[in-house]
TrEMBL record:
It comes from the Bacteria. GO terms for molecular function: tRNA-specific adenosine-34 deaminase activity; zinc ion binding. Catalyzes the deamination of adenosine to inosine at the wobble position 34 of tRNA(Arg2). The lineage of its organism: Bacteria, Pseudomonadati, Bacteroidota, Flavobacteriia, Flavobacteriales. This is tRNA-specific adenosine deaminase. Homodimer. Residues 4-114 form the CMP/dCMP-type deaminase domain.
Length: 148
């Protein structure tokens, strides 16, 4: 049994999503992994930074690129709690990340619904810890509706 499997790293992304939840951000978290080592981790910061591009994936890509000292994420896997949007898919395309693992599908804005593409060599795996990721998002939006 491999301790460092997809569930292990998705739990790390979910911890980032919980942090986003706690500060009032849409609870999406992401980590970038290479050789079983997290080299970038982030959560949504769009409200805090007042920046529509401050998605968890974008922040994690930047952190991982800074760690590696280059713009390409060859050999890296991005774990993200929600299917990336078209903007993030574009960034993932250009970073040439080797694999994307996501939790919950985004049936309205996910890259697979709106026609976004990842790099042709990028492996995609969805539905990892989907229930946990979906529940966190549902809890957030129920709470937000109740506050308004």
């Amino acid at each position: 049994m491999n301790l460092f499997d997809d569930n292990y790293f998705m739990k790390k992304a979910l911890q980032q999503a919980e942090t986003a939840f706690e500060i009032g951000e849409v609870p999406v978290g992401a980590v970038v992994v290479v050789n079983n080592r997290i080299i970038g981790s982030a959560h949504n910061l769009t409200e805090r930074l007042r920046d529509v591009t401050a998605h968890a994936e974008m922040q994690a890509i930047t952190a991982a690129s800074n760690f590696l000292g280059g713009k390409y994420l060859h050999g890296c896997t991005l774990y993200v709690t929600l299917e990336p949007c078209q903007m993030c898919a574009g960034a993932l395309y250009w970073s040439q990340v080797s694999k994307v693992v996501y939790g919950a599908a985004d049936l309205e804005r996910g890259f697979s619904v709106v026609g976004g593409n990842l790099h042709p060599k990028t492996e995609i795996l969805g539905g990892v810890m989907e229930n946990e990721a979906s529940e966190l998002l549902k809890r957030f939006f129920i709470q937000r509706r109740n506050l308004n």
